[in-house]
Design brief:
CATH topology of the largest domain: Rossmann fold
Order of helices and strands: EEEHEEHEHHHEHEEEHH
Bound molecules: adenosine-5'-diphosphate
CATH architecture of the largest domain: 3-Layer(aba) Sandwich
Strand content: 25-35%
Structural class: alpha/beta
Distance between the termini: 37 Å
Number of strands: 10
Largest sheet: 6 strands, mixed
CATH class of the largest domain: Alpha Beta
Number of domains: 2
Helix content: 25-40%
Radius of gyration: 18 Å
Length: about 240
């Protein structure tokens, strides 16, 4: 579970996040949508513990910057940043050691196989394409079997096979009770899996809806998005 309470993040005097309060429950998949600059990445970085902020953020009841929270939190950044001089497999090993995982090799192998990285296992981070870097980043985040995962634009740069696998993984994680936040502009790609949507504008949550609430209106996510952000429907 993620509990965000009165999150405000200022860059100098500019409020990139302005008093955000929301909860994402166990097993719930939340989509964070909003135009460029709305504050989505900033919120995700605050939740992941990378930025200082005002307010409170808890991960399964632990303060987000605590070791207990970090142990169960996975984060896939918008821009992957692999270690240039570690191989693909060494990235897995590095995470396994940092988190003191046991018997991680099979899981690492399975993640790499699903993302077609097995034949790249001895390639260095700096030798990888953007898409491959993104895949490693996802494998690193998921190797620890996180209870909470944050994905910032995870589908951008992935090939169709990887997109298919990642969508399957979203479903598998949900079944296990994992809490997921996905920031994305590709709303149709999450149409099958989302439970809750937050539409951000100008650092605030302009609208929060459950799947049931949206389904009752007959709208899809894109239509809701355009209605909230531009006051019109996606069909125009
Ligand atoms: P989104 O992810 O929704 O596109 P961001 O969270 O990246 O939005 O950015 C929100 C706002 O904060 C934007 O106006 C952006 O220019 C500003 N911003 C983001 N990072 C910084 C930074 N490091 N310093 C100053 N302003 C920033």
């Amino acid at each position: 579970m993620i509990n965000v309470s009165h999150l405000t993040k200022k860059y100098n005097r500019f409020k990139a996040n302005d008093n955000l309060t929301f909860t994402v429950s166990d097993g719930e998949t939340a989509v964070l949508a909003g135009p460029n600059g709305a504050g989505k990445s900033t919120a995700i970085k605050c939740i992941s513990g990378l930025l200082r902020f005002d307010g409170e953020i808890e991960i399964c009841g632990y303060k987000n910057k605590s070791a207990q929270a970090k142990r169960i939190l996975g984060y896939v950044p918008e821009i992957p940043a692999p270690y240039e001089l570690l191989t693909v497999w060494e990235h897995m090993e590095f995470i396994a050691r940092a988190y003191r995982l046991e018997n991680w090799e099979n899981r690492a192998g399975e993640l790499m196989r699903r993302f077609e990285l097995m034949d790249k296992r001895d390639k260095l981070g700096k030798e990888l394409s953007k898409g491959m870097q993104q895949k490693i980043s996802i494998c690193c985040a998921l190797l620890i079997e996180p209870k909470v995962v944050l994905f910032d634009e995870p589908l951008v740069g992935l090939d169709p096979h990887a997109i298919k696998e990642l969508k399957l993984m979203f479903g598998e994680m949900k079944e296990k009770g994992t809490t997921i936040i996905i920031s994305t502009h590709m709303l149709e790609s999450v149409e099958d899996i989302w439970d809750r949507v937050f539409i951000m504008m100008n650092g605030r949550i302009e609208a929060e809806r459950s799947r049931k609430q949206v389904e009752e209106t007959g709208e899809n996510l894109n239509e809701l998005f355009f209605r909230i952000t531009e006051g019109r429907t996606g069909e125009e």
